[in-house]
Amino acid sequence: MKNLRPETLGILKQIETLSGRPVEFKPDASLTLRATLQLARNGAPAHVLRYRPANEPLDYWVAYQAGYLLRLLELPPSERFDFAGTGSAPAQVEELLTAGLKLTDAERSAAPRFAEAAAHWAMMNLRSFAIGMRIDQWLAERHPDLHLLQRHGMDALQQENLQLLSQRVGKLAIPVPLLGPVAAYALFADRLLGKTTYAIPFRAAGALDLGAELLSIVDKLPADAEHDRALVDTWASAIGMTGWYTWIPYKP
User: Cys-Cys with 211: which of 26, 38, 81, 184 at CB 3.0–4.6 Å?
Assistant: First the structure.
């Protein structure tokens, strides 16, 4: 991919060295994320990083996605696992959504689809923000040349997370416990970037105490990749998401 900084290219070179396969880039205007990295499996010759075309530099988003794969590759093969849903999350979320509410017929009809979307979002955030904090800390400490782009990227992510607070259908809204990971990330971003404003909306939403609890778990557990599963599991327990997912041995 053209125009990536030497620092970013060096991170990608680490992936190639550890995995024995290069990273290919494919633009994808349909992506909701800035970038996503598909691992090379079943004999595929390369990892594929799909990215949303944009005028701004993509180095932070590329480096951030690469961080997930680097952490996986740091582990011995027997300790590598995929994160997969068990199928129980939508029903659990629907219970949380509707508990104690007197719903209209329209709201009752909308509840299953709203719950499914909220469950998908919650499952993605559980893993991505818990481990993502480790990646952001690593980028801040080990790759200072990307610091300004990291600040801009983290700010953009905070603005996207704020939109979740207004997602609702009538009286249906994302249950407060499921906002814990984004509240934790807001506290983390405030701390890492020396700000104080990112966490404020999550206090008003009632999610900041849980966010602080989740951030304290990050601080207490060792930061190496060996503890990533324990970090996600401990977060899940604190949020009430235990049993919503399982760990499946990784197959290259």
Answer: 184
Number of domains in the chain: 2
Q: Do the domain assignments include residue 172?
A: yes
Say whether both 181 and 113 belong to one domain: yes
Burial class (CB in 10 A: 0-12, 13-18, 19+), 63: buried
Residue type, 96: L
Sign of the CA dihedral 124, 129, 130, 132? positive
Residue 61: inside a domain: yes
Q: State pLDDT tens for residues 48-99.
A: 999 998 888 999 999 999 999 999 999 999 999 999 999 999 999 999 999 9
pTM for the whole thing? 0.94
In angstroms, the CA 236 to CA 103 distance is: 28
209's tokens? 């105490």
Same domain as 13, residue 61: yes
